[in-house]
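task queued by scheduler; priority normal; single chain, no ligands, no partner chains; default sampling; output format set to structure tokens
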Amino acid sequence: MNGLNPAQQEAVETLKGPMLVLAGAGSGKTRVVTFRIANLIKHKTRPERILAVTFTNKAAAEMQERVAAQIGKLKERPQISTFHAHCVRVLRRHANKLGYPQRFAIYDRGDQESLARGVLREIRVPSEMMRPSDLLFQISRWKTYSLRPPDAAKAA
């Protein structure tokens, strides 16, 4: 743990409960989290009980590499991923409990606009009257207000 400042050392040495490591770019967040994971495992926390999430695939991959270098080969590994990847994993695991199929697709903005364009064409709404982005905005508002499709249809 050489080179860690007091706040970073405190984060690494905290063994109970969750921890949020929030700091600017290049400040050593990945280093702190990887040291903390290794320290938790050293103090008998089972690796499969550890979850580390970050925003980018690059940061998640780097964290996985660093943790592997510190803890070596283990039967079970900590879960290290992006927020999005972790949430998708949880949704897929429990989709049937929510009434959804486990094999669902997640559309990016381009996919959404393409689908909206097709829908507007299919129901013959002139492009001057509504653009795909307008439809997506309206759908987002319905979701914000928790309107189910039949209620959204009435509102439309």
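post-processing summary
- The longest helix spans residues 57-71.
- The CA atoms of residues 46 and 115 lie 44 Å apart.
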